[in-house]
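Appendix C reproduces, verbatim, an entry submitted by the partner laboratory led by Prof. M.T., so that reviewers can inspect both the input and the predicted structure.
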Amino acid sequence: ASSELAEEEQKTDDEVLSVGDAKEAGLTPLPCPVAEFSSTLAPKERAVLLRRFRSAKVKCLVCSDIVARGIDIPAVSAVINYTAPSHLQTYIHRVGRTARAGKVGHTFTFVASGDHERFKTMLQQSADCWERISKFTLPSAARSQPPWWAEAKQLLQRCLESESKGRL
């Protein structure tokens, strides 16, 4: 995270606040300065990082829920949830980082197909949230599993069977 703090970049209006688990987001290389904002950073490091984000020297923050409440960053144009939260209140606090003070903002939430109904039910608790939701399905190539996935799944199944029979 320290190397991201040292990068300089010109100020633009396009800023993205990415909310999710930093490990799940992966911090893959992107064509803009990206930094992790989580409880693993010391409070002083977080303060420096927020200043750098507000001044657009860092364009994208990958955050844990530490940022979901109480931190006001006026220029956030989008929130990306890499994992769908389980509770409506968490979702509202996460997406509340964008569209502050009457400005337009966007939220994108990746929801696994098996979690879609739970997520939909959760959002229906707030009619205001559900009315503005658009569903997009990722192309099948993006959903395909890596080559080792089937083998790992079979190994896990064998381990679970052995464990249930008392062999582990």
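The first helix runs from residue 2 to 6. Additional entries are available on request from the coordinating office.
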